[in-house]
Design goal:
Blueprint: E1 2-5, E2 11-18, E3 23-30, E4 35-39, H1 45-55, E5 58-63, H2 69-72, H3 75-82, E6 86-87, H4 94-97, H5 100-106, E7 126-129, E8 132-138, E9 147-151, E10 156-158, E11 163-164, E12 167-168, H6 178-189, E13 197-199, E14 206-207, H7 208-214, H8 216-219
Parallel strand pairs: 4-5, 5-6, 10-13
Antiparallel strand pairs: 1-2, 2-3, 3-4, 7-8, 8-9, 9-10, 11-12, 13-14
Length: 222
């Protein structure tokens, strides 16, 4: 579990790696109120609950970047445990949320449940926790319903599996499209600004500027 605190002392975040895919389940909170959101609880719910307890925050929402099993496998269980709403992803990923159990079975992951979020998200929507507000960007390509959460004040984004440090999301799964993914990155993420840092779904985070300069999947398209 790794912890990050924003330099402006407005927000904090911890990353809790979950499942055999080492997915970055992320807890972000508004520092003044300690109100928090869990992003992409892919599984290992007891581990997530323990991290919440250790951090001393009050989780009020669950946000989902997309519908793949390693990001949503524990969502229904965590919703029941905390009695909080699930927001996201885009409705284009409904076919994935309708098949959580079947998808988990292919990887030997048990305990997941098919579910419907309390709120689907779309381009132009916003989500909030405490005093923090995030714009929603619909960024299909890795999955049809992938979304990114961007906070302009903090110059920070959670990009799910759309973009990685040195790579991009895989596009060989149902509904994936490499051309669509690259278009999402070029038209939605790069314009956010080089100073924007991000947490992604797997591995270390990065910044938009770093990826613009060095990510081979991006530099070859510019």
């Amino acid at each position: 579990m790794t912890e990050q605190n924003d330099t402006k002392a407005k927000a904090g975040a911890i990353i809790v790696p979950v499942t055999l895919f080492e997915q970055n389940c992320t807890i972000i909170w508004d520092e003044p109120s300690k109100k928090a959101v869990v992003i992409d609880p892919g599984g290992d719910v007891p581990k997530i609950l323990d991290a919440i307890k250790q951090t001393g925050v009050t989780v009020e929402k669950i946000w989902l970047t997309h519908g793949h099993i390693d990001h949503v496998g524990g969502a229904a269980e965590l919703r029941d445990a905390l009695n909080v709403p699930i927001e996201g992803p885009h409705v284009a990923d409904k076919f994935l949320l309708d098949n959580v159990v079947a998808s988990g079975a292919r990887f030997g992951m048990t305990g997941g449940r098919d579910f419907t979020p309390d709120r689907w998200l779309d381009e132009g929507d916003s989500v909030s926790i405490g005093g923090l507000q995030f714009d929603v960007l619909h960024c299909p390509g890795h999955s049809p319903g992938s979304v990114v959460f961007f906070n302009n004040d903090l110059r920070f984004a959670h990009v799910g599996d759309v973009l990685f440090a040195g790579s991009v999301g895989r596009t060989d799964l149902p509904g994936g499209s490499h051309a669509t993914l690259i278009n999402s990155i070029l038209t939605k993420l790069l314009p956010l600004g080089d100073d924007v840092g991000f947490i992604c779904g797997h591995g270390a985070g990065s910044s938009i500027g770093q990826e613009r300069m060095t990510n081979p999947f991006i530099t070859g398209e510019m």
